[in-house]
Design brief:
- This protein is an alpha+beta fold.
- The protein has four helices and five strands.
- A hairpin with a 3-residue loop joins strand 4 and strand 5.
- Helix 1 runs antiparallel to helix 2 and helix 2 runs antiparallel to helix 4.
- The longest helix has 22 residues, at 37-58.
- It is globular.
- The two termini are 13 Å apart.
């Protein structure tokens, strides 16, 4: 990222009630960055998935875990870093879903990683066991 980066940060507790604050934060910053409505919707959906996974899995629905969301952007790239201190997880163990089978079986949930990879230009997951988990989502502008 270059010199003219804009950065913002939001820290919330791991409660589903905070997802709307996260969405508002993401959409206002993405709008400032000049992203299209479609891109903003995709980013919000990907971030929503990531945060829901953190709440459900990393913190196992414990409501007082902390989720830190950092946004950094310039004229070329919009990047979101989502940090938590919950249980670690290896995204490589999650197979790509068979969407037709998934649809036939009427499953709900479990598409988080697939959705994030589909909606964003780049998805990275960094985990330091016992310390933190970090999801990096980026969208080219």
């Amino acid at each position: 990222m270059t010199q003219s980066n804009k950065t913002s940060e939001l820290v919330v507790k791991s409660r589903t009630g905070n997802l709307s604050s996260i969405r508002d934060f993401i959409s206002s910053k993405a709008f400032e960055a000049g992203l299209t409505n479609d891109s903003i919707e995709n980013i919000m959906l990907a971030v929503d998935e990531a945060c829901t996974n953190i709440i459900k899995h990393a913190y196992k629905s414990f409501p007082d875990g902390e989720i830190t969301i950092k946004i950094e952007y310039n004229s070329e790239k919009f990047q979101i870093e989502i940090l938590d201190h919950g249980s670690t997880f290896n995204p490589d163990t999650v197979p790509d879903p068979d969407l037709q089978k998934y649809y036939r079986n009427g499953r709900v949930g479990g598409l988080g990683m697939y959705l994030m990879k589909t909606l964003m230009d780049d998805v990275k997951y960094i985990s330091v066991p016992g310390k933190y988990n970090k999801v990096l989502l980026s969208k080219n502008i």
